[in-house]
Amino acid sequence: MLTGPASGLSQLASLLTVESLVRVGEDGRDQPWLAESWKLSEDGRSLSIKLRPGVKLSDGTPVNADFVAKALPESVRAQSGSAFDDVETVSASGADRIEIRFRQPSMFHLEALEAPITKAGTRAVGTKPATPAIGTGAYVAAPGSTTEFVSNPDYYLGKPAIDRVVVSKYPSVRTAWAELLRGNLDVLYEVSPDALDSLEHSTTISTHVITRRYQHVIVLNSHAAALRSTETRRRLNASIDRKAFVRNALNGHGLESSGPIWPLYWALPKTSPPDAKPAGHAGKVSFTCLVVPGGADERIGLEVKRQFAAAGIDMAIESGGSQQQVQERMAAGRYDAALIELISGPTLLRPYIVWLSTGSANPGQLGNATVDLARQRARLATNESDFKEAVAAVQAAFEADPPAIFLAWNQRARAVSNRLVVASPEPGRDLLSTLRLWKLAPDAPHTSRN
Q1: DSSP 3-state assignment of 14?
Q2: pLDDT confidence of residue 199
């Protein structure tokens, strides 16, 4: 659930090759995808799902009820961790219908349907999949390659107009930007906030900004002596001016955050968070924060350090090495604080499995008993009214006994050459999700490679 440069290729590959029973809208609600419709029983313990007809994997395997009933348990277990414990059985109840039985009712059951549908033995996630995922997407990995994708001629919504996608890595955004201007590539996939402003003025390139479901977070180790006090961790949160943080550290390209829940989530109370009050200078606080050196993380760390210093708090920045090394130290508990990116939205299930202190998806001793109790209440809610109250309690628990400082939801842009006619996605959805509908502009030269 941590993100970084290594995960970019995996995310792009999944976007092109893999689909799920449902996709999640901007408000966190499920929308039909491979599932045409679904119905939850009155007691909340049985879910009947009707599959979209005519869907096949890229290798020709029919995606019928028998296939999905076998593939879904492994996928939900891999993506949703302990949420899978509620699943009792998954079985075919007809050629195009499956039925899922649960041990207990929960509002999380529908959110778990976001798990990808792939052939057994292939992987839809992971930074270095041993075998490319075989899914139902509009593209398929070229034989023996993890960086080249070809169109799926049997895609159920029609063969894509773009036949081939080749992914190339560049040492910097500046280098990739130069190649884009020379016509040697068509799309720059990851444009960070520090480079976005310079790209927006081009007349031959279009930029498309998206607020990602990932947050810049400073995780606080409540077992460390310096941060054991709940009051200290509250003081750290109150000392951050998040508007100034977005302006100074992210060049204005971010969305202020006050907790782990996506701000447009349907069950989140629609009230504005109170303005942070000055934390004052009561008592000396000193601690060390692990930061991956170079790039945006270093600038973010320096901005947080500056704001803390103004509040009489001393945060020393320590180079944590690579992202993997930071994660290893977190898992071992050898840190005071760590600056990382974490997935959080747009559903509640995502932050649930990340912040559950005993969960398998927890990247390293995150969370505490206070937030565990609040999340468990949300998991056991069986109707929308109770669930909304539980979601409000989750948000309150993170404020009362904060295990982290939630700084901002980050933004990224896709830069696309005007040689391509691009189909606009739904609000909040990645531009690349419409790649199958893209076309070459009628007067575009055929000189680009990627």
Answers
A1: helix
A2: 65
